[in-house]
Amino acid sequence: MKQEYDGRLKIVKIDHDANPQLIEEYKVFGLPTLILFKNGQEVPGSRREGAITKAKFKQYLEPLLATFTVP
Questions:
Q1: Phi, psi of 48, rounded to the nearest 5 degrees
Q2: Looking at the DSSP assignment, which residues form a beta bridge with residue 34?
Q3: Tens of pLDDT along the chain (71 residues)?
Q4: Do the beta carbons of residue 32 and residue 49 sit within 8 Å?
Q5: Sign of CA dihedral 38, 6, 48, 66
Q6: What CA–CA distance (Å, rounded) separates 36 from 69?
Q7: 3-state secondary structure (DSSP) of residue 4
Q8: Taking a C-beta distance cutoff of 8 angstroms, is the pair 36, 46 a contact?
Q9: CA proximity to 43, closest of 9, 18, 6, 2
Q10: CA–CA–CA angle 44, 49, 55 (5° rounding)
Q11: What is the C-alpha separation between 56 and 63, in angstroms, rounded?
Q12: Residue 26 contacts by C-beta under 8 Å, 6 or more apart in sequence?
């Protein structure tokens, strides 16, 4: 999936046990949680909690990426 979105999206995984301050700061209540950021700010409506299939992930992500590019 990394190559598929290269140049359009940077995916970062955070260890919630090692980063409780981030979990609190971003009010993460369920795992996994996906939050998209643009220019350091959370993209409104981008937050998603819970596991999803790759197909559903792409279905969710493509409309959001169509509105911007992340270097």
A1: -145, 135
A2: 48
A3: 667 788 888 888 999 999 999 999 999 999 999 999 988 899 888 899 999 999 998 999 888 888 775 45
A4: yes
A5: positive
A6: 12
A7: coil
A8: yes
A9: 9
A10: 95
A11: 12
A12: 33, 35, 42
